[in-house]
Write a structure and sequence with these properties.
The chain is 36% helix and 21% strand. The protein has 464 residues and is an alpha/beta fold. Strand 18 and strand 19 form a beta hairpin. It is globular.
Length: 464
């Protein structure tokens, strides 16, 4: 069989028709079952037009291997994380392409206890098995397998239990009146927000939701939900200003990331939200470990130190963060890319827990979001992640390190290269999946220095 190019470092993603279709999904499901040997698997999918048919193909492949399938229906990725542990199944699969173009789809896998499966922990083996398999399917299944030897199939609903778990992170009696703009981008966050709203009303929590781009729609009439792109932020910002809201929340397609806007409509970089959440958790549990990625660190490190926490820096990417969190039993982990991980959520990432914690923090401190973050943004201004297409990432990385490492205070290689000076620092890392390098720069209370050094680095890189 030919090579399956849809297998990536952390998940499966591919262009529909050429890299991913129902027949490939069926083979992947059987390979997954042969590798993991699960008794039961939970399945869910996002709103993309092909998610339901790909999910059905996965279900057929799993059942033909004798695996019992629990179908959650329309879900976000974190609902699979929750259901896998909550239902004590052997693993879970979410059908999603998150923020990829409309002609893509993919799968995210976990095993028992919601542990991630990536290239280093099974995906390569699953790929190798899938590439050897070939079946003559009839009606999407293997006719050589009798019905009595197939696994069972049932639809299940864990959303009420899942949302009950989400609300356990906050003291609902502490919440003050707040107006929130919520923008799922026509992804699958909307139905969860609806259930959360009912629960908040039942608890007499005075939270009002202003809905935009709310209904799940696989045609994505307002564009692919990817709020990290600058051009996608105006719709949330404008709604916050028009409705005089206290905060705006936007999600990507499978809502494992959330992006926040303050009451002035300003987009808050995920870096500063990591610091906020680290502080919130350390106030609840003194001395706890907090995991962070090395792209931008000074703000988070200072907050952890000031709150008597233990900082652990690890490589970016959910597989590395989750592994390190389990190793250190960390209460929280955060990436500047707006992935937030929680010990009590099976060390998994959630796009719902962060904003719930933030509205509790705003309520307790009786401060707007801008007041919570502006002081930190001023103390440690940052560039945000800048992506640059290059022909030879290794050459660029080596040249930058050679040039800038000479007078550096510190050089580290946790993820790419991080170079610290007294008043500014930067991290440069190569993409796992494309010919791109990612640059992040920050300074100590000096936006002008930040601007100068960022431009200097960009000029240097472009000349290589």
């Amino acid at each position: 069989m030919s090579t399956l190019t849809c297998f990536k470092a952390y998940d499966i993603r591919g262009q529909l028709g050429t890299e991913l279709n129902e027949e490939i999904a069926y083979r992947i499901a059987r390979a997954f079952a042969q590798w993991l040997k699960p008794k039961s698997i939970v399945l869910g999918g996002d709103i993309r037009a092909t998610s339901a048919s790909l999910k059905a193909a996965l279900a057929n492949g799993l059942r033909d291997e004798g695996v019992d399938v629990f179908d959650l229906g329309l879900t976000g990725t974190e609902e699979i994380y929750f259901a896998t542990t909550h239902l004590q199944t052997s693993g879970g699969i979410e059908v999603t392409a998150s923020h990829n173009p409309i002609d893509y789809n993919g799968f995210k896998f976990v095993r028992e206890q919601s542990k991630p499966i990536s290239a280093d922990t099974g995906l390569k083996e699953i790929q190798a098995i899938a590439e050897t398999l070939s079946y003559d399917l009839v009606d999407g299944r293997d006719p050589s397998i009798s019905e009595s030897n197939r696994g069972s199939y049932q639809q299940v609903n864990t959303r009420d239990d899942y949302t009950k778990h989400l609300l356990s992170y906050v003291d609902l009696t502490a919440l003050k009146p707040l107006k929130l703009v919520v923008n799922p981008g026509n992804g699958v966050a909307g139905p969860v927000v609806d259930v959360l709203e009912k629960a908040l009303k039942k608890a007499n929590a005075p939270i009002e939701f202003i809905r935009i781009n709310f209904e799940p729609d696989g045609t994505f009439p307002n564009g692919i939900p990817n709020p990290i792109l600058v051009e996608n932020r105006d719709v949330t910002r404008n709604a916050v200003l028009a409705h005089k809201a206290d905060m705006g929340i936007a999600w990507d397609g499978d809502f494992d990331r959330c992006f926040l806007f303050d009451e002035q409509g300003q987009f808050i970089e995920g870096y500063y939200i990591v610091g906020l959440l680290a502080e919130a958790f350390l106030q609840k549990e003194q001395g706890a470990s907090i995991i962070l990625d090395p792209r931008m660190t000074w703000n988070t490190l200072e907050i952890i130190a000031n709150n008597n926490g233990k900082a652990v820096t690890t490589k970016a990417g959910h597989a590395f963060i989750k592994e390190t969190m389990r190793k250190h039993d960390a209460i929280y982990g955060g990436e500047m890319s707006a992935h937030h991980y929680f010990r009590d959520f099976f060390y998994c990432d959630s796009g719902m827990i962060p904003w719930l914690l933030i509205i509790e923090l705003m309520s307790r401190k009786q401060q707007p979001l801008s007041a919570l973050v502006n002081e930190r943004i001023a103390a440690y201004p940052s560039s945000g992640e800048i992506n640059l297409t290059v022909t030879d990432a290794k050459k660029v990385m080596a040249s930058v390190e050679q040039h800038y490492g000479k007078n550096a205070k510190q050089i580290e290689h946790i993820d790419g290269v991080g170079i610290d000076y007294e008043d500014w620092r930067f991290n440069l890392r190569a993409s796992n999946t494309e010919p791109v390098i990612r640059l992040n720069v920050e300074s100590r209370n000096n936006p002008q220095l930040l601007k100068e050094k960022t431009q200097e680095l960009l000029s240097f890189i472009r000349q290589i």
